[in-house]
Model the fold of this input.
Amino acid sequence: MSRLFPALIALAAVAGCSSPTAGPTPEKPSPASRPTAADAPSPPPAPTPPAAVVPVPPLPSLATRPGVDWPRLLGPTGDNVSPEKEIVAPWPAGGLRKVWECELGVGYAPPVVSAGRLFHFDRFGDAARLTCRQAETGKVLWKYEYPTGYEDRYGYDAGPRAAPVVDGDRVFLHGAEGMLVCVTTGGAEAWKVDTRAKYRFQQNFFGVGSVPVVDGDVLVVPVGGSAPGPRPIDFRQVKPNGTAIVGFDKRTGEVKYAAGDELASYASPTIATVGGQRTGLYFARGGLLGFDPQTGATRFHYPWRAKIEESVNAANPVVVGDRVLLTECYGPGAALLDVKGGKPAEVWSDADKDRLDKSMMCHWNTPIHANGFVYGSSGRHTEDADLRCVELATGDVKWREKRTTRCTLLGVDGHFVSLGEYGVLTLFKATPEKYEEVSRWQVDGLDYPCWAPPVLSRGLMYVRGKDRLICFELIASK
Done:
């Protein structure tokens, strides 16, 4: 079970940023600003009632570089592909230019970037903290905290797993204990709901790890509430209570709907147009749930999970037209579904293949589609993971690069940036003919576990390791 935890992502004391040349002295949190253990809720408090809309003055953008924002997990299009161009390739012998770096608290979530502001979500002592920094310099602008008493069942770090989500003037948090919080981009709390107290879910293997998604005025949140009673010894016996997905009014926190007969996983919902309908897709604990993101109405469900108890679904569905690729690493592997008409049909499947013959077995990392081929890190354990390219239409493996450790990918400018879990950055070309490596670099100070995917915004790439966030210049400033 010790190797199951990386299925999360869908991540001490705080420090200020530092640049290669000069920078502020690392900050230490004031004891007065830190909640004590007595502040941690036990039992969880009643949910905060929906609040009136908090007026938020518009904040000017702090960005000075061209490019795009990265306001949510896997970027603006939800597939970890950036539209930016003219990356540095190959990389210099000593690696990319370091712009700034900072120490982090405990957790596993990648940062997000919006309007020149970078947001990262970590835990410090008994407080879950959202930190807002100037994205280009790392300067701390503000911090927001709430008390948390989350304890991991398997002894892993008890910090947040889910990345923040920025939508206009709001930032949404989904803590490991199930607290759902809306904070303004100026740092004020707008509303807060304790989803575990409200919907009574059994603690999953490693707490809450799914990242919400915004659809219009609705914040779509995977909750996965369960039937009354104590947590069964075997988690497979937990029964859902019809709250797989909960839609909240993103401005007030008011519940718009609660629907879906599933439990939560460590994948995150994505929204796409399939079969002419705007559809929410959530790779839940038991399989793929298709639903109306505005009403929660279930459109279809496709069972897909391993038979063993200690297993999770964690990679997001990959949507290409009316087809959806599912992949996991504990049992059945991958399956390509045609979901047109709301009736999923297998195009191909790994279910009946020998484990060594399966096409793609992604752990927590979502594979990336490019020109009819899918690229991803396949393998449950560090020692058996490889990079591979798979033809989407057939599942045929075109090439594989062995012994890469488990990696997360960023697609940009005809290349992929791969971040290995031990801090190795690799640049290779996005071609199905063969694995063509351009550059490889062991990043100093980036320690295991590096499980969060790289983030790229306005030419600056942000990578996270165990207790550090580093900003590199991937596209030179003009």
About this structure: Confidence is low (pLDDT under 50) at residues 1-17, 21-50. Helices lie at 195-199. Residues 5-43+68-473 form a domain with the Methanol Dehydrogenase; Chain A fold (CATH 2.140.10.10).
